[in-house]
Write a structure and sequence with these properties.
The protein is α+β, with helices and mostly antiparallel strands and 1446 residues long. It is built from 36 helices and 65 strands. The strands form 16 sheets. Strands 38-39-40-41-42-43-44 form a 7-stranded antiparallel β-sheet, with no helix packed on it. The protein is elongated. The two termini are 87 Å apart.
């Protein structure tokens, strides 16, 4: 308990206050004893009055200095201890603390010891004489020191306790504040939780799934303690903070901190980010790093920043989630769209401006590719002014050319404030460096018990001089000095100071010398301390890998990749802490501290020592070998699922399985081996063997693995890199090239499907591919062949189709070959990746149809012109307009850059040709063609001549003068296309009259003219000039040899007309814009040499009806433009691989049906005239394809209201029906039954119906069932009478099926089911349609359904049939209760047309007509049943036809 001072008895005691007035006349020792007693009493009782007054009036002789000093100490004791205690006791009601009470008791005990010592001295004899001698002063002085020591100890402890109390008070206050803060946070969290509860789980998941990088300033991917050293960089930090706090709207929103490598930019950026985070003003940060793939990827920057911004405020988070809900894939869109949808629009909607939001982006120069950094800058510059929120952007970078150039653009000059860090006065920087070095060296001295002062001023100044203005030198030097294992910092310091520096003109000469010394010491210590063979080679291999790797790896993964023991790698890294971030955990990544270190190792002039220098090509070669050898560990089905028919998302615990099956070094090798190969030497025999082994053994499992890792898109680029590299080797194997080509075609054709289902590669993509090297070589990895017929004979020349929703104009390749640009009727200019077909950007700015486009030679600009006489020059990096070309008076038909990129040329229907400055858009010259309206144009290879087309004339323009065009007239041809050959002498023109002409344009002489099979609306000449491409009639392309002017072959394709053509720069690919709004990419080497085949030979028929025999022996298909114009058929013998036989007939057929055994088939023809309509029934023998029977009868009615034709189950009877009279109220139908043995009529009856939708025999051939939309009946063949007739409560007319419905695939005896189950008075009728996940079932008295197939998306399912309850009922759309059995996937291009009868199921075989093919596909259903699990969840994929088809 606290205790209070008891003052009463002490204050009343006279004995405690002896007369001190005569203290100078008494013995000094007695006076000292009296003083000590009074001090003790004052401490213990606080009741000694007059202590200060008594000593204050004491007059001591001057010669007794020791006693005077003692009295002063007692007075000080009274002032500092006694008086405050008395004040507390008399004036304050506060209790004294237990701590003070304890201190007073301790002081009293110590004073009592001094008193006893004094009493012992007084008890000795001759005291007066003793104190009068010389030793008196020394004795008193010693007592004085003892008293002073007690006083100081008391006060020191009090001060400590006071400080502790203050700290405790602060802690208590902080706890109180923390409690208040926590309460506020709980309130905020409750509000946030309430708001987040308003967000759907789907929205939150979209936010979590937004692709982003671990690139925050405080992320685990960065080293800790990256801020500025205290007291350094004060000026620049003050300037940045002033800029952030400046509310003036004229203040530039972007602060560009530019400086040399190692000068401390990242440290400053980290400091600002941390400070603003503490102030709750940091919106986002992104710290680039070229060593880490995700932190150098520009496509992850804006999604990462957007995600961090969403954490600023719950409302902003909700706005971003809503944006993602509208466009879930926006995180993978082009950067311009990312910024607009993820940053600009949410911030505009949020519009909270009460506080500044700071965004920090560090090391922009480490963004790769460089164009990504430019795009990032331009996006900020163009969008920041639109954002109402006060947002400040701090950017740091090196002064690289592409960044400097972008900051010098007009938009960034107006929105940014540059700060050149290396232009700061050198003395200011060196003062900061000296402060940092001095502090850190003192720490090292203390840690190593170095004698002080250390180091000497001369040594410190020399370190500062060597650091110059580079903080990285100082930081690395400190790490090096402190990292010695022998605890000898002085030796390491001497090494640095004695190191000779080379390359005196280099800014980094001292840093380079430091790095050299670090490496030497690492090798020496490694050799001395570790018992490892080839220490230099091991250290170099580890260091080389860390520097060259395309992404960071952990110590454990690095060891696995290099096939080294983990301990050896750890030992090698042990002495490199000065230059590397070496984590304690082997699971964390190793990386360089600063990019200047790998730059030093790779640059020959900076690292002349060959023992350390890394040759990039050699290193990439070694790493390519290492990565490919690591892929040997790949295996099929790495997750051990055992079912190749599962979607990746259906694999249980996929991520955990992948963690076990695919370690990080294997994943790295899968992703990046091609990147190393791209930079590797093609002369390496070892690498050549590795590549061949990879193609021989591991190509498929590598693709499968990328699918499981959700990284399949990288396979397309990697395969091309491997193929192109392999072609440059000394002796490439053609089979390897074929394997790589085939693999690329497989991935391109089925990229989306393989990406979602790794097994699709084996069970669908390859089985449905044509015979090829890849399929043959990896045959053992494929399932049993369930595709009995229908594989294409060769790869389709068109290997990629990109669907758009517009009419396309001319297209053009970039000169680098990586992009295509095309204009369209929607006023858009679209840029595509020419390898993957992915849309990279859409440029909006035209107000009319875009008629022509062109790339500049450097690929940085695009020019486009429209039908509204306007031209635009675009920056392809930023998507912004650079200039608008205005001056033409009519549609501009042609635009092109000259080879030097300085000039843009345009030609218009107003008859003029104009030239423009490509940088400013300023008009340079205008030339006239004398009223000839220009329709198209071309530029010669040398850039000096333009050819333009009028209706019947070709104009030749010389750009070196301002003269009008020189016209070449024929008066007979309408010119539609023109192109120059590469000899700068000849050009080729195309005409609408199917003629191609060759001209000498310098002499205006027609050299040659030849006919082609279609109007020539586009001509493309390969970059080499050796090949010319033209459109073909009814689809495809023609290729011509320009040396011999002979047709070398054709590229067969769909019947859509080709509008425009363009060759890729290497001539390997042709791009075509089609009249159906698609862009198709063609393999120019996949040529059909039958160049002169008639146009109809490869046209693709439209199958209007397909049928097959129930026993699977034959299939018959009618071919024509529609169901009622078929004049030919094909008959396939399904038991043999033979080609189908064909037959033609004069009268068009509208239906075909096969007998159950396949021996016969019957056709119903439409013939006669409108006045005399006839219907013709013909029966054919399947084996001989000979007509057996023909009967013609009069029939009326429109062709879509025909009756049915059907064979009996035994095949001995044939029934047919047709409309006799349309004038009766319900129409009049005649049904005839024929014997197929004698072809005599067995029965005939008439019914009052408009048409028959169902006609079927009973199983015993005794009765004939018929039905329409609302009626049904049964005719007994023996009694020739109706057994049953009736009205149906619901109809069975397929015309009434919903528009989205697809007919289910049923066997011939099951489609439109009709047979007697319980006798003559019980009829079963059913018609089935599938819509999405539902089955529409129109039935009458149906107890059991037959089995049926249905197609959902690209999946084929079989339902086993059974009770109607297992399917659904009536018009309602109810989910199928029994999901049935999944059978297989179909490639998109094989999906049947749901609007036509192009599929039939025989029970054991499914027969399909393939889109854009003249053959059928036959699937062995029985083998699929055996290979599949019994059931799995119903598919949920959308109809693939609604998605772009690759």
């Amino acid at each position: 308990m606290p205790w209070r001072l008891k003052l009463g008895s002490c204050l009343g005691s006279s004995s405690a206050a002896p007369d001190l007035g005569r203290l100078d006349s008494v013995d000094p020792l007695s006076a000292m004893l009296t003083g000590l007693s009074m001090a003790k009493d004052s401490v213990t009782g606080l009741g000694v009055p007059g202590l200060e007054a008594a000593f204050g009036g004491l007059n001591v002789k001057d010669n007794n200095d020791a006693l005077v000093s003692f009295i002063e100490t007692v007075k000080h004791f009274s002032d500092t201890i006694v008086s405050p205690l008395v004040t507390i006791a008399t004036e304050s009601n506060q209790p004294i603390t237990p701590e003070l009470h304890e201190r007073l008791q301790t002081l009293a005990r110590n004073l009592n010891i001094l008193i006893k010592n004094t009493e012992r001295l007084l008890a000795r004899g001759s005291l007066v004489k003793f104190f009068m001698n010389q030793d008196d002063a020394g004795t008193i002085a010693q007592f004085n020191k003892d008293l002073d020591r007690l006083l100081q100890a008391f006060m020191l402890k009090g001060a400590i306790l006071t400080e502790v109390a203050v700290v405790q008070g602060h802690q208590k206050l902080e706890r109180g504040l923390e409690a208040v803060t926590n309460e506020i946070r709980r309130t905020e969290a409750a509000n946030i939780d309430t708001q987040e509860k308003q967000m759907s789980m789907a929205q939150l998941q979209l936010l979590r799934d937004l692709p982003r990088a671990q690139a925050r300033y405080d992320s685990q991917s960065r080293s800790a303690d990256r801020g500025c050293f205290e007291g350094t960089r004060t000026n620049i930090l003050r300037d940045i903070n002033n800029w952030i706090n400046n509310k003036d709207p004229k203040t530039p929103p972007i602060f560009w901190l530019c400086g040399l490598a190692g000068i401390g930019k990242s440290t400053i950026a980290h400091t600002i980010a941390a400070e603003e985070d503490e102030r709750h003003r940091l919106g986002a940060s992104f710290f680039f790093c070229r060593d880490q793939a995700e932190r150098r990827d520009p496509s992850l920057v804006f999604p990462s920043i957007a995600y961090q911004l969403s954490l600023v405020d719950p409302e902003l988070k909700k706005l971003l989630a809503e944006a993602l809900e509208k466009d879930p894939d926006v995180g993978m869109a082009v950067m311009r769209k990312q910024f607009r949808k993820l940053i600009t629009e949410p911030l505009i909607a949020w519009n909270k401006s009460e506080r500044t939001i700071v965004v920090v982006m560090d090391a922009l120069d480490e963004c790769s590719p460089e164009s990504g950094a430019e795009e990032i800058l331009v996006r900020w510059a163009s969008e920041l002014r639109k954002i109402p929120v006060p947002l400040k952007l701090l950017i740091t970078s090196r002064p690289e050319l592409h960044i400097r150039s972008t900051f010098q653009s007009q938009s960034l000059r107006l929105t940014s404030q540059p700060y050149i860090l290396h232009d700061i006065e050198k003395s200011v920087v060196q003062d900061d460096i000296e402060r940092f070095l001095r502090y850190r060296l003192v720490e090292i001295a203390e840690d190593h018990d170095m004698p002080t002062p250390w180091p000497t001023e001369r040594e410190l100044k020399e370190l500062v001089r060597r650091a110059d203005i580079l903080f990285i030198f100082a930081a690395t030097a400190i790490k090096f000095i402190a990292s010695g294992r022998r605890r000898d910092p002085q030796a390491r310091l001497d090494l640095l100071l004695n190191e000779e520096t080379g390359n005196r003109g280099s800014t980094y000469r001292e840093v380079d010398a430091l790095y050299t010394q670090v490496l030497w010491q690492a090798i020496r210590q490694y050799e001395e301390e570790e018992d490892v063979e080839n220490t230099q080679q091991v250290l170099r291999a580890v260091l080389e890998a860390i520097v060259i790797l395309q992404d960071t790896l952990s110590t454990k993964s690095l060891a696995a990749l290099l096939s080294l023991e983990l301990q050896i790698v750890q030992q090698a890294l042990m002495h490199l802490h000065s230059v590397l971030v070496v984590p304690e955990s082997p699971e964390d990544p190793v990386r360089t501290i600063h990019p200047s270190f790998p730059e030093f190792l790779i640059h020959p002039s900076r690292c002349p020592d060959p023992r350390f220098r890394i040759d990039a090509e050699e290193s990439h070669t070694r790493l390519a070998e290492i990565c490919i050898s690591a892929l040997v560990g790949l295996k099929h089905d790495p997750c051990g699922v055992g079912d190749p028919w599962l979607h990746n998302r259906q694999i249980p615990n996929l991520e955990s399985r992948l963690q076990v099956a695919l370690p990080q070094h294997i994943r790295y090798s899968c992703r990046h081996f091609a990147s190393h190969l791209l930079r590797a030497s093609s002369k390496s025999k070892a690498l050549l063997q590795f590549v061949e082994q990879f193609c021989d053994k591991h190509l498929l499992v590598w693709i499968e693995t990328l699918s499981l890792l959700d990284e399949l898109p990288s396979a397309i680029k990697s395969l091309r890199i491997v193929r192109d590299w392999y072609k440059t080797t000394a002796s490439p194997n053609q089979k390897v090239i074929e394997l790589l080509n085939d693999a690329q075609r497989v991935v391109l054709r089925s990229a989306e499907e393989i990406g979602e289902r790794s097994g699709y590669l084996y069970v669908t993509a390859l089985p449905f591919s044509p015979p090829c090297a890849l399929k043959t070589h990896y045959a053992a990895a494929l399932p049993p062949d369930y595709l009995l017929r229908g594989q294409p004979s060769r790869w389709d020349p068109c290997y990629f189709t990109l669907e758009t929703c517009a009419t396309l104009g001319p297209l053009a390749y970039s000169y680098q070959g990586d992009r295509m640009v095309v204009g369209d009727s929607h006023s858009a200019v679209r840029i595509f990746n020419s390898l993957t077909g992915r849309e990279m950007d859409t440029l909006w700015g035209h107000q009319a149809e875009v008629l022509s486009v062109a790339f500049s030679q450097d690929g940085h600009r695009v020019a486009s012109v429209d039908s509204d006489s306007t031209g635009i020059i675009w920056d392809t990096t930023t998507g912004s307009k650079l200039a608008t070309l205005e001056g033409h008076a009519a549609s501009i038909k042609f635009v092109v850059f000259t080879p030097d990129d300085n000039t843009v040329v345009t030609a218009s229907e107003d008859g003029t040709l104009r030239t423009w400055d490509s940088s400013t858009g300023k008009a340079l010259a205008c030339r006239s063609s004398r009223s000839h309206a220009i329709r198209a144009g071309a530029l010669s290879n040398d850039g000096y001549t333009v050819a333009t087309l009028a209706n019947a004339a070709i104009g030749i323009w010389n750009l070196r003068d301002n003269d009008s065009a020189k016209m070449m007239n024929t008066q007979s041809e309408k010119y539609t296309a023109v192109a120059f050959l590469h000899d700068n002498v000849r050009l080729v023109s195309g005409c609408s009259s199917k003629v191609v002409q060759l001209w000498d344009y310098q002499t205006k002489t027609l050299l040659q003219s030849f006919g082609v099979n279609c109007a020539v609306n586009s001509i493309a000449i390969s970059r080499s000039g050796a090949v010319m491409a033209l459109p073909r009639d009814k689809g495809g392309l023609q290729l011509w040899d320009t040396n011999t002017w002979s047709a070398v072959g054709m590229l067969k394709g769909p019947s859509n007309a080709v509008q425009f053509l363009s060759f890729s720069p290497d001539g390997s690919t042709l791009a075509s814009a089609m009249d159906d709004g698609t862009i198709r990419l063609w393999d120019s080497s996949n040529v059909d040499s039958d160049a002169h085949a008639p146009a109809h030979a490869d046209t693709n028929p439209s199958y209007s009806y397909l049928t097959a025999a129930a026993n699977g022996s034959y299939a018959v298909g009618l071919a024509g433009d529609d169901r009622f114009s078929c004049r030919s058929l094909k008959l396939w013998d399904l038991r043999t691989p033979n080609s189908p036989r064909t037959a033609s007939f004069v009268e068009p057929a509208c239906s075909v049906v096969c007998s159950s055994d396949g021996s016969k088939f019957a056709l119903m023809h439409i013939c006669g005239s409108q006045d005399n309509p006839l219907r013709l029934l013909s029966v054919w023998d399947s084996a001989s394809l000979r007509q057996l029977f023909e009967w013609t009868g009069r029939g009326v009615g429109s062709s879509d209201r025909e009756g049915g034709t059907v064979f009996s189950h035994s095949g001995t009877l044939l029934a047919s029906s047709f409309l006799l009279d349309r004038n009766t109220p319900h129409g009049s139908l005649r049904v005839s039954v024929w014997s197929t043995k004698t072809y005599t009529r067995q029965a005939e009856f008439t019914i009052q119906m408009d048409y028959i939708s169902n006609l079927a025999f009973s199983p015993d051939d005794a009765r004939l069932f018929y039905s329409s939309e609302s009626k049904y009946g049964v005719w007994d063949l023996s009694s020739h009478r109706h057994l049953v007739t009736g009205e149906q409560p619901w109809g069975f007319n397929s015309k009434r099926a919903p528009p989205e419905a697809r007919p289910l695939i049923m066997p011939p005896w099951g489609r439109d089911l009709a047979h007697n189950i319980k006798g003559s008075d019980y009829i079963t009728v059913a018609e089935f349609w599938g819509t999405g996940d539902d089955i529409i079932d129109r039935t009458a008295d149906l107890q059991n359904h037959p089995a049926f197939l249905f197609i959902e998306g690209d999946e084929i399912w079989e339902h086993p049939g059974g009770s109607k309850d297992s399917i659904g009922r009536s018009e309602s759309r109810r989910n199928v209760e029994d999901p049935g059995r999944f059978l297989c996937w179909l490639p998109r291009t094989w999906l049947p047309n749901p609007q036509q009868s192009q599929m039939v199921w025989t029970g054991s075989h499914l027969i399909l007509v393939v889109d854009e093919s003249d053959d059928i596909c036959v699937l062995d259903i029985e083998s699929l049943r055996k290979a599949k699990p019994q059931s799995r969840p119903r598919p949920t994929t959308a109809n693939p036809r609604s998605r772009p088809r690759p």
